[in-house]
Amino acid sequence: MDEKQYYVGLDIGTTNVVMVVGSRVAGSQTIKIESLSSEPSKKSIVKGLVTNRSVFRNSVNAVKKELEKSLDVKIEQAYFGVGNADVRGVVVEDMIAVRNKETGVITKEDIMLLEQRIHKVELRELRETIINIEPICYYINGTKRVLDPVGMQGSYVVGHYLITLGIKDAIAALKALKNAVGLEAQQIFANATIGYKLLVSEQEAQKGVVLVDIGGGITDVTIIREGRIQAFKSFGLGSENIDSDIKTILPPNGNAVLIKHKYGCAMAMDVPENQVLQMGGRDVLLRNVAAVIEARVMDIIDLVVGFVRESGFEELIECGYVLTGGATELKSISDLFGRETLRPCRCADHLYNVEMPSDEEVVTYGQQMAVAVMLAGASYAPSNVFKGALIGTDLHSESEQGTADKGAEEETAQDPQGGVKPTAEDGGQTVGGGENQPTESNDPPTEINKQSRFRKLFKPAKSILNNLLGGGSTNSGVGE
Fold it and tell me: How many other CB atoms are found less than 10 A from the CB of residue 291?
């Protein structure tokens, strides 16, 4: 019998903690969802941050024990997905000389050296830590834009990377689960950077789409094009705000969450004027409930559209918007998004790259991100085989990042047009230089300054925008 590989994903949400176990037969690419469990967070998480560690650990332990019992396994490790308003993406760039001077062919080792330099970026915000780094694109000789430069020829390569930053205390609270409930984090992902692999089709990801995850306390917005994340942002606004708004028009003991789930609609015009609900001796017009919901969803739409516009991708998202998260359960929410954005909009009703255990099984919008975390873990560690009990090794080690030839020539070379190509040294790096011509790369590591976070995020996106529109390639530094 073929041996299965198991993967566990844990989504830590403001409303619920959701854990999912997936598997695949060795040699197969299909991930099958084995089982899923959800437990209320019980106000132990606010805007994605753990505020009551004891209650939070109890919720995690509850879903863990339920899955262990139903699958008859021991779960000791999982991939964690986090999302909070302090998780942010910063686009940085760096450059490196091609080591083979004779042929000028760019190798994997060249790109690995470049990525090592990006990993050494220093952060001015001491409370932040790097969660993940992903490439956006590369420029060969500062002009030719490509997605994968390996095998091509050039004198030097400029790489644009998306760095995901999170709060150290939030990450520490998750790592503490190892001692508290016996659950170790194999890898921690920012939810905004992984959902598209489950919820967006390959065609949408190539042509341009925005994934909007409206959770309990956080709304994650991710712009995807050319199959890669171009930018993302998390806003501290979600369905809990909708709940609070609904409470203002209900009797004192009215259950806003229940009303939202049972009667919630994002467009007031879709609710009959005379539809009335009796609560606490009062008549509550459901159209009024819908009007309150619509107003708050409009706030979310304004934030989403504003971010997409400011990032420079408003005209490049051919496939519009895909909605997920608990608030997606609201009736007519995709219609409201479509009306306000003038773009196609759909709810994430199809899961890609995974197989359900049966046709009757359904993953709700609020549970989808846990599946995305599990899928990201499977992609992150395709060779991680759990035999019997779900026990493995810590995959978050430096050895996983690969090694590069540190004995490469470390010299600067003159550009035919008079510029200076970067060195291939493995030390300090230039991140976001402001000049159009490359500069020597033996400067001290550049700090990421919180005051310049938006400048660093949006400038490269606009440079990418010009290239996608055919306006000519430029090597615009992040710090311009």
Answer: 17
Residues 357-381 have a mean pLDDT of 85
Question: Distance (Å, rounded) from C-alpha 20 to C-alpha 123?
Answer: 34
**Which residues of 168-306 form beta strands (DSSP E)?**
184-190, 209-214, 219-225, 228-235, 276-279, 282-285
Domain boundary among 325, 346, 367: 346
CA distance 65 to 69: 6
> What is d(CA 2, CA 6) in angstroms, rounded to the nearest whole number?
13
Opening angle at CA 460, ends 134 and 147, nearest 5: 45
Computed over every residue of the chain, the mean pLDDT equals 79
> Pairing between strand 45-46 and 49-50?
antiparallel
Q: Does 176 fall in a domain?
A: no
Strands (E), 168-218: 184-190, 209-214
- Report residue 383 as tokens: 């060779």
Structural domain containing residue 427: 88-164+404-468
Cα 460 from Cα 95, distance rounded (Å): 14
Residues contacting 403, CB < 8 A, separation 6+? 112
Enter the DSSP assignment of 313.
-
Structure tokens at 253: 């003991």
| pTM reported for the whole predicted model | 0.77
What per-residue confidence (pLDDT) applies to 127? Answer: 83
